[in-house]
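TEACHING EXERCISE
Course module: macromolecular assemblies
Task: Read the component lines below, then compare them to the predicted structure of the full complex.
Student: A.B.
Group: 4
Components provided:
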Amino acid sequence: MQHLPSAQPADDSYPSRGQCRSALRPRIDPVVYAAPSANAPLDSDRVERYRREGYLVMDDLFSATEVESLQAELQRLRSDPHLHESPLSITEPGSGALRSLFQVHRCNPLLRRLAADPRLADIARYLLDDEVYIHQSRVNYKPGFRGREFYWHSDFETWHVEDGMPRMRALSVSLTLTENVEQNGPLLVIPGSHRHFVQCEGDTPAEHYKKSLQQQEYGVPSDACLEQLVAEGGIRSVTGKPGSLILFDCNLMHGSNGNITPYPRSNLFLVYNALCNRVVAPFGTQPARPEYLSSRAQIEPLAAAPRFSLESV
Amino acid sequence: MQHLPSAQPADDSYPSRGQCRSALRPRIDPVVYAAPSANAPLDSDRVERYRREGYLVMDDLFSATEVESLQAELQRLRSDPHLHESPLSITEPGSGALRSLFQVHRCNPLLRRLAADPRLADIARYLLDDEVYIHQSRVNYKPGFRGREFYWHSDFETWHVEDGMPRMRALSVSLTLTENVEQNGPLLVIPGSHRHFVQCEGDTPAEHYKKSLQQQEYGVPSDACLEQLVAEGGIRSVTGKPGSLILFDCNLMHGSNGNITPYPRSNLFLVYNALCNRVVAPFGTQPARPEYLSSRAQIEPLAAAPRFSLESV
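Instructor-supplied answer key:
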């Protein structure tokens, strides 16, 4: 690595881009912050698998009726013409169809309840051993026929460089609301990759997020780094029925191939960050991304709450 | 369908593009031309599966040593700098790496022997019930990391419109020389789709082949046609070890997703056409594609031959 100290703040534990060269660096943070406990919301097998592989798939967390209710809500959002013009939305260049809608944990009552539901939030509190808040939330609609690939990346690398998330003490939850099969561009993960920090090359261009949400060019691993991660951990596809929940560490290397099948995909995406890990100034050279991509002005710790039914608002 | 009789030759059994509208039409040709026979080079189960699904996968046709020999030959071709400048090759725009090399059954002694090997040619002669020749041959190298998708298409539609192949009496053989897994963009097929002819919309631009070999925009099915084929037959990925052979009907709808994994893919591709089905003038409006894409001036029926060893030239 060629790292000029003046180019980054002194307390940057994970320098990337700018003067950095492509390299794998050891993770200096824990994956599981909590001590083992008999009252943990995850059994010890699952905790160990999460620590080792960086992700977990759970298909038994929500009832069929709850999943249907969430599917209906996503359908409603998609057909709401007002949302298509919202600054919180990303639409398809050609058709104008809704592709992503951000900050849903603030704007939508049902999804706000989902974010605070103890079936999710208690797992996040336990693994991160702190109060938690939502760093980012969104719903994604990925079309069939011409679905684009999303290249390999660690979310943490972007959140650190572009948002100022100091350390690896966050996790993501992806709740699939359509069936994911091998052929329709499911999430691909590299088990164990979360234990390395992949330094990336290149200067971040201004307003990178406007492009990176559609195709990421900066903050992606070099071919050599990726080969090394895959040689160690292999690649797994995350497939499953609607309602499957994928819990993954903020630094897990993941991506997805494109999708030429007629089967579309949609999911809900929530990022839980430890309160003590709230964002500071970005570690990269560009101004912080907007609030809807990265909670900064409005940090709202999720209140401990009884388990909700998500069947209706 | 809106079909203006004057726009196509009178004997066009499968009009497509030009004035045609997107539609599924029944196939009017057999899939298996031969009568059942005790001496058939395929057992009756395989013949019936091929008739019903339009493809077969066989992983027991070549010895490990033969597969290694073919792999070494592909490697040699790839590193031959002379071939990169050949008009028979397609190279990557950026790196100049070899992506496809055509007409290998004429130029390469080992691949010439492979094309004539009775393990392949006898199956083609049997299913097509005629003498056969090679309509097209090529080796394909598909890179990892940034491998492009190839959209759904029927080869026959292109061969008919752009090359003048009169009827559905041809089949393709794809011999995989790297491992195909679910994640590295394997061949996707729609079982049973070969029993429909999918009329496509749009006028073929001049020299379409120069672009279509990298990305096909014309001669692809509409979303509605594709949905109907998938609703009937589903989608299957063809995965397998190096040396697996995929035999598929000329009209089977197939494609592949992109490939963001580090795993490259390479294969050998041979198209056997019945001698009685040799190409005539193209059924579309453009001049015939060049000889290296579609044998026309040099139609050479494959001689009946003893089984070769492909271990060396």
